[in-house]
Amino acid sequence: MTQAEADSARRSRAARTVVVIPCYDEGARLPTARFRDFLLAHPDVAFVFVDDGSRDDTLAQLRSLERVAPERACVLALPANVGKAEAVRRGMLRALEGGADYAGYWDADLATPLSAVRDFVDLLDARPDLEIAIGSRVVLLGRRIERRTLRHYLGRVAATAIALTLGLRVYDTQCGAKLFRAGPATREIFRDSFVARWAFDVEILARLIQLRLAGGLSPAESVVCELPLSEWIDVAGTKVGALDYLRAAVDLFRIWRRYRV
To answer: If the chain, 261 residues long, is cut into consecutive pieces of 10 residues, what is the mean pLDDT of each piece?
Structure first.
């Protein structure tokens, strides 16, 4: 273990939950004040901010957050852009070093507010049989889910293809809010690089399915729970476009060919 890794493990040891925040050129829309306020108000949550080779001032902003609570915030600065999948994977490996109960990842724009972290923790606390809690953007009365119409319908088409690929009745794999129990299964899931660059969330579930089958354990759907979000706001400036759904389709084929789930 390097000195940086040892420092990271020491920082997050007191926190029950570690959240990875992947960032690439987020300087213009990174909600630093919201991160700062949450850090100061929630000593049981730590962050691993992963700068994925940003070309703007993202890294400088992340360093300023690190100084707010150095014992619970660390920055993993990657020298070159490796893509969100690999940035999340490296961040999760770092997060799993500190002995926390749970580790997960959240989109940097906070489309899912940080207040929802508590809901995920409560779910995993109440259900010790679960390995993964997945945020789900289900439009229900009394909940604030604001998603652009085109993205919503493209997302529903993608969700159907994903469910067929995995053989798993999952509503929303692509929401950028997920929390994992920090155990052997999660470490195995993130051990190796993903074959998918865009649809790595799907590959996470494919790996879990394989692990459960190989171990003669109950099906993956028995250890994954989708949590309907109370709030999700589509933030302006998102880098996800229609072309990315085509790239995700290619990823789905790669996942199917690799895992044959």
So the answer is: 52 80 97 98 98 98 98 98 98 96 98 98 99 96 89 81 91 95 98 95 98 96 98 82 79 93 66
Give me the residue label for tokens 């997960």. Answer: 104
The CATH class of 1-110 is: alpha beta
Range 147-156 contact pairs with CB under 8 angstroms and sequence separation of 24 or more: 147/232, 147/234, 148/234, 150/242, 151/234, 151/240, 154/242, 154/245
Question: Judging by DSSP bridges, how do beta strands 102-106 and 17-23 pair with one another?
Answer: parallel
User: Which secondary structure element, helix H or strand E, spans residue 124, and what is its range?
Assistant: helix 117-126
Domain map (residue ranges) of the chain: 1-110, 113-261
Among the listed residues 126, 123, 146, 127, the one whose alpha carbon sits nearest the alpha carbon of residue 135: 123
Reduced to 3 states (helix: H, G, I; strand: E, B; else coil), residue 204 is helix
Q: What angle do CA 219, 223, 224 make, to 5 degrees?
A: 110
Model-level pTM? 0.91
